[in-house]
């Protein structure tokens, strides 16, 4: 009698369209941890499973901000964010402001800066006015810095 070899455990199937916004750096910032403390990020159907140093937790896709390099947010994404933001007085959490401020300060080219500005134009409705003003200021600083380095 032959014994069948054990089947490997099935891998979670990602069917959530917001999985395109999941990055290790965004998850780490959301959880107030260093990216080095995050060991594994698994995108499951309804949640993101994060395994890190002394932690194993779930994060909602709607907690993570949109990023460059993937499809821009659509109406379904906006609906998910608005539903999630009910607990934040219908605005994006402060983490989003900090995330975008950090990403804007890390840009290396004008094209990259313009891509981040495009993402911000899509989600600006959810940011408090003070955040929008500060992020616009950072964009201005980075434009000046990048143009200054072109010469």
Structural class: alpha+beta
Continuous helix count = 5
Rg over alpha carbons? 18 Å
Strand content: 5-15%
Please write the string of helix (H) and strand (E) elements: HEEEHHHH
Stretches where pLDDT is under 50 for at least 5 consecutive residues are none
Using DSSP, what is the number of strands?
A: 3
Compute the number of structural domains. Answer: 2
The global form is globular
Major sheet characteristics:
3 strands, antiparallel
Mean pLDDT: 90
Structure description:
A hairpin with a 2-residue loop joins strand 2 (47-52) and strand 3. The protein folds into two domains: 11-64, no CATH class; 68-151, no CATH class. The protein has helices spanning 24-30, 75-84, 94-105, 110-123, 129-150; strands at residues 38-43, 47-52, 55-60. It is built from five helices and three strands; from the N terminus they run H-E-E-E-H-H-H-H. The mean pLDDT is 90. Strands 1-2-3 form a three-stranded antiparallel β-sheet, with helices on one face. It is of the alpha+beta class and 151 residues long.
Please summarize what this structure is.
By secondary structure, the protein is of the alpha+beta class.
Q: SSE layout and pairings?
A:
Elements: H1 24-30, E1 38-43, E2 47-52, E3 55-60, H2 75-84, H3 94-105, H4 110-123, H5 129-150
């Amino acid at each position: 009698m032959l014994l069948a070899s054990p089947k490997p455990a099935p891998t979670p199937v990602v069917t959530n369209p917001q999985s395109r916004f999941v990055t290790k750096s965004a998850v780490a910032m959301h959880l107030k941890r260093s990216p080095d403390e995050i060991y594994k990020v698994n995108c499951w159907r309804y949640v993101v499973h994060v395994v890190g140093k002394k932690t194993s937790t779930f994060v909602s896709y709607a907690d993570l901000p949109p990023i460059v390099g993937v499809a821009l947010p659509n109406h379904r994404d906006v609906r998910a964010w608005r539903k999630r933001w009910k607990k934040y007085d219908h605005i994006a959490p402060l983490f989003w402001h900090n995330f975008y401020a950090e990403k804007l300060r890390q840009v290396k080219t004008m094209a990259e800066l313009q891509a981040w500005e495009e993402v911000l134009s899509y989600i600006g409705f959810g940011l408090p006015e003070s955040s929008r003003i500060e992020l616009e200021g950072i964009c201005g600083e980075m434009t000046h810095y990048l143009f200054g380095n072109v010469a």
